[in-house]
Amino acid sequence: MRPTPDAIHTHTASIEIAASPETLYGMVSDVTRMGEWSPEAVGADWHDGATGAEGDWFVGHNRRPERDWSRECQVAKAVPGEDFTFVVGGVEANCTWWSYEFEPTEAGTTVTERWWIVNKTPALAAAPAEMVAQRVEMTLGMMQETLASLKAAAEA
Fold first, then answer.
1. Is 2 a member of any domain?
2. What is the DSSP annotation of 48-98?
3. Is residue 31 in some structural domain?
4. What is the pTM of this model?
5. Considering the domain boundaries, does residue 128 fall inside one?
6. How many distinct structural domains can be found in the chain?
7. pLDDT of the chain along its 156 residues, tens only?
């Protein structure tokens, strides 16, 4: 899924991984495993038996040295082997989006992670502008680290 024109911040990172789009989609769409490759996300819990279909909800858990936090998220797009996208706060709130696209290549798959903000979450809206800028800058590095760790796990 691509950022919308009204996004106030965006980042994109890609990596080629020697694994099939279906394998990688399975890894990423199991949000309970995100802590295996993310430097910040430590995992998630699905709501009410959800499995990752469009419209399903989960609570994502995050950790930084200075604090822990959890956020309600909704799956916005779930096309196995092609696109897994979720949004913090739900589609209707239209806050922070995370998207993973899978494009087959001769050597495996190019995975593209996209991140964008349309509306700030209440916590981000309450933060000073310099903290928001630091968060936006830090996010691209975290995305690159996540993709590198996903590659290592998938190719192991």
1. no
2. TT--S-TT-EEEEEEEETTEEEEEEEEEEEEETTTEEEEEET-TTTT-EEE
3. yes
4. 0.94
5. yes
6. 1
7. 999 999 999 999 999 999 999 999 999 999 999 999 999 999 999 999 999 999 999 999 999 988 899 999 999 999 999 999 999 999 999 999 999 999 999 999 999 999 999 999 888 899 999 999 999 999 999 999 999 999 999 999
